[in-house]
Amino acid sequence: MSINRFLLLLLFLPLLGRAQTTTIAGKVTTSASLTGIGKVSVFLSNSSFGTETADDGTFRLVGVKPGQYTLVASSVGFQQHTEQILVGAEPIQLNIALKPKINQLRGVVITTDADFKRNLEIFKKQFIGEGENAKKCEITNPHVINMIYHSRKLEMEAWSTDFLVIENKALGYRIKFLVDTFSSSGLTNITEWQGQVVFEELPGSAAQKQAWKIKREETYFGSARHFYRDLYRGTLGQDGFIMYRLYREINPNRPDEAIIQQKLKKFVALRQRDSALYWQDKGRMSRYYHEHLFKEPLQPYEVFSNTNARGIFALHFTDCLYVVYTRRREETDFKDLYRPLDMENFETSVVSMREPYALFDMNGVVFKGVPLNEGSWSKSRIDDLLPFNYDPGDEKGGK
User: Fold this and answer.
1) How do the domains of the chain map onto residue ranges?
2) Could you report the per-residue pLDDT of 148-186, keeping only the tens digit for each?
3) Could you tell me what percentage of the chain is helix, strand and coil, using 3-state DSSP and rounding each to the nearest 5?
4) C-alpha closest to that of 78 among 40, 118, 21
5) CB count, 10 Å around CB of 163?
6) What is the predicted pLDDT for the residue at 372?
7) Predicted pLDDT at 239
8) Spatial contact of 279 and 267, defined as CB atoms under 8 Å apart
9) b/e per residue, 233-245, with b = 16+ CB within 10 A?
């Protein structure tokens, strides 16, 4: 990046920080007759901005913060409408025409009660999480979720037929999901999902709301969202983040995880102790070797740059991004996370690109080319999910 371009970026950032909220309004109609449709759910996915249309199809979302959002309009009998919205300071007016839903048969999952309960426990563990917040999360309508567990591959896939409703009583949110796809692998430890979600504040006493505010801040600080916001604001150092470059190679001496699990299962069943121990040792090997951490901290301009779109930033770096959060110590032992012997045990995340670059917005949300997170950020599940518009400076945490 040239010096002139970098100076322009520095001048640009304060203007972004002072951006005001705005209003999104419009009307939802049928595509055929353009008649207004009432009771349509209209929301910005992954935010706390949502409403239902009036009888004439009109709607308003007020106080929306700048950023990149997916606007969703959903109603029984119509195809779901989604579109990308780049929110700035100017009001947005939309006309949305919904098409009738064409019934498409999706695979029917038939299970016994015992299988359903078993699969639900696996799904909750992999989707909601296992942290302290997860213990206070409850799915109120579990039967809208369809689940298939592939025991040989240790994989779970799932989707919902309606909003899956989760009450997170640790953070004070009712989370409503339309789960299009969900997959989680016990071999790669990678969990991914696609769908739309909207947040609602749970009712509570003043004491409960204060407890939720504290818990939300605890969840936010040190998170990936916190990091990306600090990255473009230039406040990484003052908030306890340090970035390094990590070089590593895939360990050729460690077999694929699927092979290790297959061999282990085979030799345990045959009671061949020596062979089983051999494959256990293979499983304990790190996935990586020739790892080297460059000790010179990276500067923000080496990791991201602005784009032609206001408030949208590009993430790009060489090898892996090694992010240390010095305000909290790590309590989990990650087998494959490289940590030099002379480095304190702070929360650490390794970010690797799956595409040449990624895009993120002013809310700290990566919406294109989402990278792979390992280490501390990999623990984050639905139990730690906050609305995209959440900011710890807001008294109510997200409005």
Assistant:
1) 21-98, 113-219, 225-251+286-384
2) 988 877 888 999 888 999 999 999 999 999 998 999 887
3) 25, 35, 40
4) 40
5) 19
6) 93
7) 97
8) yes
9) bbebeebbbebbb
pLDDT at 105 (0 to 100): 53
Low-confidence ranges of the chain (pLDDT < 50): 1-18, 397-399
Q: How many Å is the Cα radius of gyration of the chain? A: 23
Tell me if 339 sits within 8 A of 291, measured CB to CB: no
Please tell me the predicted confidence (pLDDT) of residue 107: 56
pLDDT value of residue 130: 87
pLDDT of residue 1: 42
pLDDT of residue 108: 57
Bridge partners (DSSP) listed for residue 251: none
- Backbone φ, ψ for residue 9 (5° rounding): -65, -40
Closest-CA residue to 174 (of 147, 206, 139): 139
Extract the tokens encoding 392.
């710890």
How far apart, in Å, do the first and last CA atoms of the chain sit?
36
**Helix or strand holding residue 212 (H, E):** helix 206-220
Burial category of 194 from C-beta neighbours within 10 Å (exposed 0-12, middle 13-18, buried 19 and up): exposed
Instruction: Name the residue among 114, 182, 178 with its Cα closest to residue 148.
Output: 182
pLDDT at 186: 75
Secondary structure of residue 208 in the 3-state scheme: helix
Closest CA to 315 of 391, 371, 256: 371
Pairing assessment for the beta strands 241-250 and 366-368 based on DSSP bridges: unpaired
How deeply is 155 buried, as exposed, middle or buried, from its count of CB atoms within 10 A (0-12, 13-18, 19+)? middle
Nearest to 223 by CA among 381, 396, 19, 394: 381
> Can you read off the two tokens belonging to residue 20?
């005001």
Do residues 316 and 306 make contact, with C-beta atoms less than 8 angstroms apart?
no
Which CATH architecture does the domain made up of 21-98 adopt?
Sandwich (2.60)
pTM of the model: 0.80
